[in-house]
Design a protein that fits this description.
This protein is α/β, with parallel strands linked by helices. It is built from 42 helices and 15 strands. Among the domains are: 142 residues, Toll/interleukin-1 receptor homology (TIR) domain (Rossmann fold, 3-Layer(aba) Sandwich); 151 residues, P-loop containing nucleotide triphosphate hydrolases (Rossmann fold), CATH 3.40.50; 62 residues; 101 residues; 74 residues. Helix 3 links the parallel strand 3 and strand 4. Helix 28 runs parallel beside helix 30. The longest helix has 19 residues. The C terminus is likely disordered.
Length: 996
């Protein structure tokens, strides 16, 4: 039986026991199978392997269940893909089997006869499975039988049905509310189903994370694979012996009166000679406590513990809080009628901690309290709320468990409690140990609550023992050099700290965190340090601080967020700081105005242009009045105003203000101060948009050199200048040079900023546009499509950069002759730009121009002419008579006039545009050469052979140099030149031609 006959078993993660049961019986009967994931080696791409399996004609056994048919699971992709295959390929066989009571009456499965194994005895279920497979595939080849799989069963009868309990069993009832965790359960199962030795898995994690519930679910879910499952409560080591006595009695190998020593000897001896058994040691405090009780043999041991140091005893699996999707599903299932949005907010407030979720669901269901009210009480009376709604299968409420653990820890390690209290005032994110050390370092004004740390914090080994104690008592999660305390644990701890002590510690934290400013927030090399500090900086709420150093650090944190393109979080933080400082310090305070400055940049990057100008003008007026016109902050706001005019499309005002700011920065700060270079860069951009490309390029190259010296080759500001040079080279018609510069900028931005940073997307779009202008249309189109999709995902549909990307994509489509598609996109972009930017923003006029050209491309020449004439008139008014884009509009009007039969008018206008372009852009600019080509074509069509040859010769030579011999425009010029020379009896390529 070849590879295409192998049965691919498709199942939901929760149904792994069923998949293994089906596999055992199929292979025992002689069929060859492939179990999803089980037969794939480490490092395999799971999605690719699934696609490979589904792509072949091999049969697929689909184990249908409620979990399998959940549309949120990837199993939906598997069975729908096979259905799609079956429409075109009759060999794409699927064998559906129902394994639980899922209702198949609605939808695509309704007319299909699906055998059910639910409720059948083992023999009947195995018979039904084999009959279903045999009915589709026929009997297996007789030489395929491979024997009983090693990992499956101890007898030829095979494993019991999933869910059936073994004869020796003492596990509590299954929790019907258990949700998710399929990946962890299957990982534990894979770890236990090892190479024949006793396999030991230790599930560890903080209190309330659901370790016991996971072990309970594991026991029930995989019960069919065991003949013995025994639960041992191990929190009190002295009681482990009693559980072994009970197990020995159940097995009939000792009397009930036997002592624990005899029980241990007899039970361990019994298990050593057998397989298919599972011992669960729940809530182990220390691995050394259970080491004497671990059996030898070929069975399984599962341990749950708050501690994570299991390396010498077991393979450790850390259990974290529930994924948000599972937390929301749990809440909506336990509280019918709860909206997913409300459940998401509640899960966020509870930190996705399973015990807290269970308590909340129980209390809300029992009282009918609105979720919003519960969340508010959770903030105001955390400990009291966390005492309510204790699940019946958990011995304590979350608040009680935390309080008891803290009390026990304070007896064992007072310094650890001091660290815990310190962490309670920081964020529920990983706290670097160096932050803890810095905060706890003794000072003149040392907080009383940290007193027990005074002698410990400078002794690494002792300090680390105290940190380890936090994990051992289930009060924190320890990472590599970090400590994480759950938000609810933090809240309970905070409620137990004396208010005056808490206030003292808060002031101390503010002072220390402010001094931990990592440095230049625009420098990507420092971003990891900012990422570690930021959550804890925000946790102390710098909007309410009296510490000026912390305020400066908080403002730099906003710049960090803006620089790495976390713009919406940056806006939220900046707005919070601005409003808080305005109220606390006054609207004219330097720090308030600095927060306003950063808020301006978030509005710009988010494309919220309507909010830009009022805020920056108000800020600038206040700074000028309070600080003077040459103060650094005032200069920055003046530079911001120039940028605001730029993004609003008023480039003349932007250039005027920008030049004034640049001159003042040079005088006050010096030529190579980063702010001076930034203002010069902004001015160069304004010159580019005003069509003053040579002047802009000279200034941009000067800025680039300065930034390379001051900031380095790969600083984001230097890369802005690099890309700016490429854009100006392109505007000057130096497309080959521009491509090399854009490519360099793109490669560096991808490496420094990442694939989806907005600056990287700008570079990619610029490179694609340059490729298009060089005649490399297919490459440009692929890149434009990729970047447009990224822009939509990263920035949103209406962001100005997304609209620019869509506009560029449409232009690439037009260059490939796909005018109808191009027109549809251009019309959509024009509609959006009118709404977002306004009717006469230069970008809106560019879109209108492109729509007009696309109308001509699909043969709607009269409509195209009318719109081109409108745009030309608007550009003359907004940009000026001889702006390069105004000349582009004039050129397009001329071509449209000829298209509608007004040849004389069109030719006259083409001549005028050629003269203007020669004067404005220069003889060798590609746009000037294209104007010459237009004249050559129209003179040829009018049988004016001599001027046609002269302009074709000029265009051919220039375009060949600028764009290359294979560019479509170059080839068109060469064709007209050749035809004209032939008509005149001239030489082509060195050979004299004669007329016939």
């Amino acid at each position: 039986m070849g590879d295409e006959s192998r049965i691919f078993i498709s199942y939901a993660g929760a149904d792994l026991p069923w998949a293994e049961w089906a596999r055992w019986h199929l292979e025992h009967a002689g069929y060859d199978t492939q179990l999803e994931c089980a037969d794939w080696k480490a490092g395999d791409n799971v999605i690719e392997r699934i696609n490979e399996a589904l792509g072949r004609a091999n049969p697929m056994l689909a184990l249908l269940s409620s979990a399998y048919l959940d549309p949120r699971r990837n199993t939906t992709d598997q069975w729908t893909a096979r259905f799609a295959q079956r429409r075109s390929d009759p060999d794409a066989r699927m064998i559906p089997i129902r394994i639980d009571g899922v209702d198949l009456s609605p939808g695509i499965w309704a007319p299909i006869n699906v055998p059910s194994l639910s409720g059948l005895a083992t023999d009947e279920a195995a018979k039904a499975l084999l009959e279903a497979v045999n009915g589709v595939l026929g009997p297996p080849m007789p030489d395929v039988y491979r024997g009983v799989p090693e990992s499956a069963a101890s007898t030829d009868t095979g494993p019991r049905l999933p869910g059936s309990l073994p004869p020796v069993w003492n596990v509590d009832r299954r929790n019907p509310a258990f949700t998710g965790r399929d990946d962890i359960l299957n990982r534990v199962h894979d770890g236990l189903s090892g190479d024949g030795r006793v396999a030991v898995q230790a599930v560890h994690g903080m209190g309330g994370v659901g370790k016991t519930q996971l072990a309970l679910e594991y026991a029930h879910r995989f019960a069919g694979g065991y003949d013995l499952v025994w639960w041992i409560s191990a929190e009190q080591t002295s009681l482990i012996g009693e559980r072994f006595v009970a197990l020995g009695t159940e097995l009939g190998i000792i009397d009930a009166e036997a002592d624990s020593t005899v029980a241990k000897s007899k039970v361990l001896g019994y298990l050593a000679g057998r397989r298919r058994w599972l011992l669960i040691f729940d809530n182990v405090a220390d691995g050394q406590d259970i080491l004497p009780w671990l059996p030898r043999g070929r069975g399984h041991v599962l341990i749950t513990s708050r501690r994570g140091n299991w390396q010498q005893i077991a393979h450790a699996v850390e259990l974290d809080v529930l994924p948000r999707e599972d937390a929301v599903r749990f809440l909506t299932e336990q509280r019918p009628g709860l909206e997913p949005g409300e459940a998401d907010q509640l899960a966020e407030a509870l930190g996705d901690l399973p015990l807290a979720l269970a308590q909340a669901a129980g209390y809300l269901s029992g009282t009918g309290m609105p979720v919003a009210e519960y969340r508010q009480l959770l903030v105001e009376e955390t400990q009291a709320v966390l005492e309510l709604g204790r699940p019946i299968d958990y011995p304590q409420s979350l608040a009680a468990a935390i309080t008891l653990n803290v009390a026990a820890l304070s007896e064992a390690d007072p310094a650890a409690v001091a660290i815990l209290r310190l962490c309670a005032l920081l964020a529920p994110e990983p706290i670097p140990v160096d932050v803890i050390v810095e905060v706890a370092r003794p000072t003149d004004l040392y907080p009383q609550v940290l007193e027990t740390l005074r002698e410990v914090i400078g002794r690494p080994l002792v300090r680390q023992e105290s940190i380890r104690s936090l994990g051992a008592y289930g009060l924190a999660r320890l990472g590599s050099g970090t400590v994480t305390v759950h938000r609810l644990t933090q809240a309970v701890i905070r409620s137990q700290i004396d208010p005056s002590a808490s206030a003292e510690l808060s002031v101390h934290l503010e002072s220390v965190l402010g001094r931990m400013n990592p440095g230049d927030p625009r420098n990507p090399a420092i971003w990891p340090a900012w990422g570690r500090l930021l959550p804890h900086l925000l946790a102390v709420d710098p909007a309410q601080t009296s510490d000026p150093v912390l305020r400066e650090c908080a403002r730099d944190a906003v710049v960090y967020l803006i620089s790495r393109s976390d713009t919406e979080p940056a806006r939220q933080v900046a707005e919070h700081l601005y409003e808080g400082w305005k109220q606390r310090l006054g609207p004219d305070h330097r720090d308030t105005l600095r927060a306003a400055t950063e808020l301006v940049w978030t509005f710009r990057d988010l494309g919220e242009f309507g909010r830009l100008r009022p805020l920056v003008e108000d800020t600038l007026a206040r700074q000028t009045e309070a600080l003077g016109s040459d103060d650094l902050d005032t200069l920055r706001s003046a530079a911001d105003l120039a940028v605001v005019f730029f993004v609003l499309g008023d480039h003349q005002h932007g250039e005027k203000i920008g030049r004034d700011v640049w001159e003042r920065c040079r005088r006050v700060l010096g030529e190579e101060h980063p702010d001076t270079l930034r203002s010069a860069d902004n001015l160069a951009s304004s010159l580019r948009e005003l069509g003053r490309h040579r002047e802009g390029l000279a200034l941009q190259e000067q800025v680039w050199e300065g930034r390379r010296r001051v900031l380095g080759e790969e600083h984001p500001d230097t890369l802005i200048s690099t890309d700016g040079i490429g854009s100006l080279l392109r505007k000057l018609g130096r497309h080959r040079d521009a491509l090399a510069v854009h490519q360099q900028a793109l490669e560096r931005r991808r490496r420094v900023l990442g694939e989806e940073h907005p600056d990287t997307l700008i570079s990619a779009n610029n490179m694609a546009s340059t490729l298009r202008e060089l005649g490399r249309g297919p490459e440009a189109l692929v890149l434009h499509e990729q970047e447009w999709q990224k822009c939509q995902r990263v920035l949103g549909e209406d962001h100005p950069s997304t609209l620019t990307s869509a506009n560029n994509l449409a232009s690439s489509l037009a260059s490939m002759g796909r005018h109808q598609e191009s027109l549809a996109i251009h019309e959509q972009v024009l509609k959006q730009r009118r709404r977002v930017l306004g009717e006469e923003h230069p970008d809106t006029l560019s879109s209108a121009n492109n729509v007009a050209s696309s109308l001509g491309g699909v043969g709607r020449h009269q409509e195209g002419l009318a719109l081109h004439e409108q745009v030309w008139e608007q550009r003359r008014r907004v940009l000026g008579e001889e702006h390069p884009e105004t000349l582009t509009s004039a050129n397009n009007v001329a071509s449209s006039l000829i298209s509608v039969g007004r040849t004389r008018d069109g030719l006259a206008l083409h001549e005028q545009v050629w003269e203007q372009r020669r004067r404005v852009l220069g003889e060798e600019h590609p746009d000037t050469l294209r104007s010459a080509l237009n004249l050559a074509i129209n003179y040829w069509n009018g049988s004016r052979i001599l001027p046609a040859r002269r302009f074709a010769e000029q265009a051919w030579k220039g375009l060949q140099k600028a764009l290359g011999a294979q560019h479509p425009d170059t080839r068109r010029a060469a064709e007209i030149r050749k035809l004209a020379l032939q008509r005149m009896g001239g030489r082509v390529g060195g050979t004299r031609t004669t007329r016939r």
